[in-house]
Amino acid sequence: MAMERYGVVARGLHWSIVALFAAQYAVGWLMPDVHRATPAEGLIALHLTLGFVILAVVAVAIVWRLMHTPPLFPPDIPRWQALLSKIVHVLLYVLALALPVTGWLNASRRTWQPYLFAVLPMPRLPYSATATGSAIGEIHSNFGWVVLAVIGFHAFAAFYHLFTYKRERFWRM
User: Fold this and answer.
1) Residues 6+ apart with CB under 8 A from 157
2) Cα 86 vs. chain centroid, distance in angstroms?
3) Listed residue (133, 129, 114, 96) closest to 20, CA to CA
4) Burial class (CB in 10 A: 0-12, 13-18, 19+), 30
5) How far apart are CA 101 and CA 123, in angstroms?
6) What would the 3-class secondary structure string for 15-59 be?
7) 8-167: what fold?
């Protein structure tokens, strides 16, 4: 019996998101520290653009996932692993939306005018002048570490299946 795989669109969205996050983390680590008077230019502007692109691609991936049933888990996968997989995937989607939104909120709080590809001005989001509103940059940074940890767990689980079961299920995505 042939293994069920994700469709070409789902795989393309998945690997596009992987590449975008890899680029985003590289830019995030290379860009200068953001202080009170730091302008949104250079790597910071690129970081904002990548965040907008990630937000759009993740939104498309979520809509695609809601409209298309993913392949079934192989019958020999323990139920707890299937449940944990579903939880991790939902968490990845939620965090992949929350991370760019908190970055956008932080840019808005700083009164930066963010642009998409240095051409299309993006609207500023309303933000709260409360302590939470002031801490949104720190929240964004912390979300970045949480996303990295969840991505790491997701990758670990994929390689665990590759090396433990030595079957094709690794190649479903």
Assistant:
1) 81, 84, 85, 88
2) 16
3) 96
4) exposed
5) 12
6) HHHHHHHHHHHHHHHHCCCCCCCCCCCCHHHHHHHHHHHHHHHHH
7) Fumarate Reductase Cytochrome B subunit (1.20.950)
Quick check: helix, strand or coil at residue 115? strand
At 124 the pLDDT is 87
Low-confidence ranges of the chain (pLDDT < 50): 1-2
Distance of alpha carbon 113 from alpha carbon 45, whole angstroms: 10
pTM to 2 decimal places = 0.87
Task: Tell me the one-letter amino acid at 51.
Answer: G
Residue recorded with tokens 């937000």: 55
| Whether the Cβ atoms of residue 138 and residue 107 lie closer than 8 Å to each other | no
Count, residues in the chain: 173
Residues 134 and 116: beta-carbon distance below 8 Å: no
Beta bridge partners of 120: 116
Q: Cα 90 to the chain's mean position, in Å?
A: 11
pLDDT value at residue 13? 97
Domain extent listing, the chain: 8-167
